[in-house]
Amino acid sequence: MSWCGRSEVSVARDFRVHCGAAGVLPDGRDDLAVVVGPPGTTSALVTTRSRTAGPCVVLSRQARAGAVRGFVVLARNANVATGEQGLRDAVEVRGSVARVVGADPDELVVCSTGMIGRRYPMASIRAHLSALTWPPSDSIEAAAAAIMTTDTRPKVRSVPGAGFEVTGIAKGVGMIEPDMATMLSFVMTDAQVPAHVLDAAFRRVVERTYNSVSVDTDTSTSDTALVMASGTAGPVDNDAFERALAEVCTGLVRDIASDGEGAGTLITCTVTGAGSPGQARTVGKSVINSPLVKTMVHGADPNWGRVVMAVGKCVNEPDLAPERLRISFGGDEVFPRAADRDTLALVEQHLRGDEVLLEVDLGLGEESWTVYGCDLTEGYVRSNSDYTT
């Protein structure tokens, strides 16, 4: 896996990028990103299941199914809980961009991320869009930076395939427990993939990646994941394409989890020996979401009993049995074998690393699942206790 380059990247040549400061907040930072592919681009879209989803999500769900070729993002304002006026503002933004780029409005999705309950500063946004010219010459990396809120770094991943390429960007560090985090992700490829094939592949990948990451158990009102295929590279092997798509999305998920608000450690929990994929994911999420497990990792405290606890609280999984359970930290087993002093020292050393690997074998079957998260620190509390001020 590699970081994508600039204009040398074939995907970047297919998808035009504009970034700018539209005045969402008055600090001059880029807060608008527009990315548009050529006519004929196919797409697949997955959005949050939140019951309080924002107007941008509602509008994007009405986009042309399988034929979206671009997106607009306004960062640091979620445009959520803004009523009918919020929807009208989103419609206006999408329509204005569509006129500039020469697309139909329903070929674009519009996304927002940031503070809930505040309307867009439409006067400054209108002024920026009225001066927008096309085609632009900004980079994919610039778009990744423009869509950030409290992210500490842009998130960009690119994977070359056999005659094609897949490149993705994402933002997200808090309010992340996707049910489809605040999470936005946009993946672009030059592969030619029919819309129905793209949709099926993307939904499978989303389950294993974006639906398998958690920072704080909270589901955002704005989560959106979009993949667009320009087709300029011609037909490709569908299985090879899905593997590359999964590699990009897995990389982005790892970036999101490791950049969680206040986070210092990426936690990866792999559950094996499950009776079903759903059971494996349920147990993995229980471990990743446990505040006691998170603080154990943050303090590098080899208190492996907290993982036993997190597995045991999956009360809707009656097949779980302690006599079948095996737990390891970075390959060192701590249960059921009694963890001696030397093993605990190895576990403590592992917990001090940048990534902690938790392995849980349920002893019930052949299914497995990997879930991604991070530790819980004082930084998370500070970041979210003064978010509006």
Protein model, in words:
The protein is globular. It has helices at 10-14, 55-60, 83-101, 122-130, 140-146, 195-208, 238-258, 277-289, 291-298, 305-312, 341-351, 378-385; strands at residues 16-20, 32-36, 42-47, 70-77, 108-115, 155-160, 165-171, 184-189, 224-229, 266-274, 326-329, 332-335, 355-361, 367-374. A hairpin with a 4-residue loop joins strand 6 and strand 7. The chain is built from 12 helices and 14 strands. The strands form 3 sheets. It has a 5-stranded mixed beta sheet, with helices on both faces.
State Rg. 21 Å
Largest sheet, in brief, is: 5 strands, mixed
What is the CATH H-level superfamily of the largest domain? L-amino peptidase D-ALA esterase/amidase
The parts where pLDDT drops under 50 for at least 5 residues are 1-8
Q: Give the total of beta strands.
A: 14
Please, how many helices?
Answer: 12
Strand and helix order: HEEEHEHEHHEEEHEHEHHHEEHEEH
Structural key phrases:
389 residues, alpha+beta, L-amino peptidase D-ALA esterase/amidase, Ubiquitin-like (UB roll), 5-stranded mixed β-sheet, 33% helix, 23% strand, globular, disordered N terminus
Question: In brief, what are we looking at here?
Answer:
Helix 3 (83-101) runs parallel beside helix 4 and helix 6 (195-208) packs parallel to helix 7.
List the helices and strands and how they pair.
Elements: H1 10-14, E1 16-20, E2 32-36, E3 42-47, H2 55-60, E4 70-77, H3 83-101, E5 108-115, H4 122-130, H5 140-146, E6 155-160, E7 165-171, E8 184-189, H6 195-208, E9 224-229, H7 238-258, E10 266-274, H8 277-289, H9 291-298, H10 305-312, E11 326-329, E12 332-335, H11 341-351, E13 355-361, E14 367-374, H12 378-385
Parallel strand pairs: 4-5, 8-9, 10-13
Antiparallel strand pairs: 1-2, 2-4, 3-9, 6-7, 7-8, 10-14, 11-12, 11-13
